[in-house]
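Example (one chain per record):
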Amino acid sequence: MIGSTRTRVGFIGAGIMARHHLEEILDGTSQTEVVAICEPSAAAYAAAAQLFDQHGLPVPPNEPDWTRFVARYGGQLDAAFIITPHALHFAQATACLEAGFDVLLEKPMVMTADEARALIETRDRTGRLLVVAFQGSLSPQVREAARMLRSGELGPILNISAVVWQDWATLTEGTWRQQPALSGGGFLFDTGAHMLNTVSDLAGEDFADVAAWLEDDDRPVDIRAAVMGRLVSGALVTMNAVGSAIPSCHSDIRVFTSKAILRTGIWGERLELQRAGSSRLRRVSSVAPMQIWDQFLNVRAGRTVNPRN
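Predicted structure:
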């Protein structure tokens, strides 16, 4: 449920993924006003402007320089949605928190552990909200799956098997996503970050051991990866990332417990359960999906908990 209080947001970044999120906001019923955009590419801003035209809405102004954007709109925004190359996340999110904005930050959060600790310190010091846009962590499906696993009703976790595949290498050819200085990594750090995060949420405990293999297929960043791990409890985990698949983008996570098999996806795109005695997986229909911006608004309003707060 989304409240009626209007939220004023500024978009930092208006690339393909940003426009996907923007269209969801414009198509939705949430009380949100997109006040301004920060996008240095004239072509990307023009594409974003078309979305507003299609919805019969005035086009927000563009301030291409993000430092001037933060200074200019310091008193006019409630929140900032940051969808930019990974290397910019730390500086931009820090500046937005310091300016008094709540922040929805595209994944991955930052480039290094030191940056992560520093950004959390800034969040705590400013008292602002920082949410990382992991659809899996925020989705009602993954939250319900984690609740069932933590409750003990399904028995202890035995194994977790996860896979994500996409024609990522082809789609990101020639873009910043294959430039290590801007991206920080390849498929496992980009799309695969959703898998790493959602599996960790479902596991609900620390890893005792981890091993990984990454293949770059003669590109500047990893394209394929396999990760194996053992949880503190002894449960075994495998994660498989295929960034050179045929044209497609899908995922599958299965959690095997002593009493059931639970199935979801890295974005929380489904929730299915097969209990002992049943012949097949059945959809858990009581949990409805929710868009990432609406999830953020619910966290901001205190209706749901901020994952890994």
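Caption: The longest helix spans residues 113-126.
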